[in-house]
Amino acid sequence: LCLGLLWQVIRIGLMAKITLKDCPGLRALLDEFESLEQLLAMSPEEILCRWVNYQLNKVGCKTVIKNLTHDIKDSEVYAHLLVAVCPVDKGPIGLEPLNIQDLTKRAEMVLENANAIDARSFVRAKDIVSGNQKLNLAFVANLFNMYPAMDDAGDFEIVEETREEKIHDHLDDLDAASGKEGREEFAMRNWMNSLGAVPRVKYIYEDLKDGLAMIQLFDKIERGCVNWKQVNMPPFKALGGQMKQIENCNYAISLGQGLGFVIVGIDGKNIHDGDRLTLAVVWQMMRHYTLSMLRHDGRVMKDNEIVAWCNQKLESAGKTSRIGGFKDSRIATSMPVIDLIDAIASSINYDLVTAASNDDEKFLNARYAITMARKMGARIFALPEDITEVNPKMVMTVFACLMSVGFARDQKKEASA
């Protein structure tokens, strides 16, 4: 029991940084026709395997791994991986271990190379040879955290049409009463996973039942707000385990109340039972996180201030678009979003922008707007329909994320001036 709990704690710590927030270069792991959402839906283990393959390709190694057990037993992958990520000031590291036939001795020599860059942790030679999944996962995760060695993905173009065309039609038709995933659940689940929820949230109502994912996220959106001594950790026993999970959910509710969330008619049992009221709490968490990126003089910006900033930015760039709020029908054309992106980054190709004279043209504009916003670094989880239908919740996150990017660019200009 103690070892299981210790592993969970170690795993959470190691996986916390394997996110787009902490390593934007992870976008480079996308295949040509994959979307950002597909990357966000991957488990940390899947992302780490992709990262390893990415590094192997950089140094000309054609091996492709699918797991961190059988595929790494001969240490060949680790030997090349260490060459790929070794910092200039600590290298060079060679491939001499591959000249050794005995796999245990080879693994030990690989670990000596890891020690040379201060990355020998968690795993022993016999753990590599035996393919110990947990310890090898910890070793690779620690190596990623120390030396991600990812190229700058600032200009990396995210191609998302294939993914969106597959999901949009069926998301609209999902019956909320059936418990299946609708657009808001999809967006919020991706947001939770982007912050490094462990384990990953695959089914938003089912995977929040023990309260742990929500508590982790509260700790990420408001550092230091969680007293981990009050949190019940797994494994949960058959007798009394349900009560422990409900206690966690009640604690998550109290954390939200402490941050000023409006939580009425919902308690820990509602979350544990998979009640749709859970979404109201998650939305306020997402809103709090989004607005926290816009702290100014220690104060979180309000909705009307975001609207005012957007309009001022549009005016100063000579754009004619304006918004009166996040319910403004003009947003359905996506022109205020597109013009704001261009005002911030001068990156819009207006030849690709339609007149938005019908629903199809509005959708194309919205999809282009989201693609370009993400390309310049905005952490947007809204879907095109959220813009065309003017969903005020998700529209607010779009403009807030653009404002955050605008702030960051303005500050960088001021610093370099």
Q: Brief overview, please?
A:
With 417 residues, this protein is mostly helical. 53% of the residues lie in helices and 1% in strands. It has a two-stranded antiparallel sheet.
Explain how this protein is built:
The protein has a two-stranded antiparallel sheet. It contains 18 helices and two strands. With 417 residues, it is mainly alpha-helical. A hairpin with a 2-residue loop joins strand 1 (295-296) and strand 2 (299-300). It is globular, with a radius of gyration of 23 Å. The termini are far apart. It has helices spanning 2-15, 36-40, 44-58, 76-85, 103-116, 125-130, 133-146, 161-173, 183-194, 212-221, 241-258, 268-272, 278-292, 303-316, 335-345, 359-375, 384-388, 392-416, and strands spanning 295-296, 299-300.
Share of helical residues: 40-55%
Rg over CA atoms: 23 Å
The overall pLDDT, averaged over residues, is 86
How would you write the strand order of the largest sheet? 1-2
Question: Helix and strand layout, with pairings?
Answer:
Layout: H1 2-15, H2 36-40, H3 44-58, H4 76-85, H5 103-116, H6 125-130, H7 133-146, H8 161-173, H9 183-194, H10 212-221, H11 241-258, H12 268-272, H13 278-292, E1 295-296, E2 299-300, H14 303-316, H15 335-345, H16 359-375, H17 384-388, H18 392-416
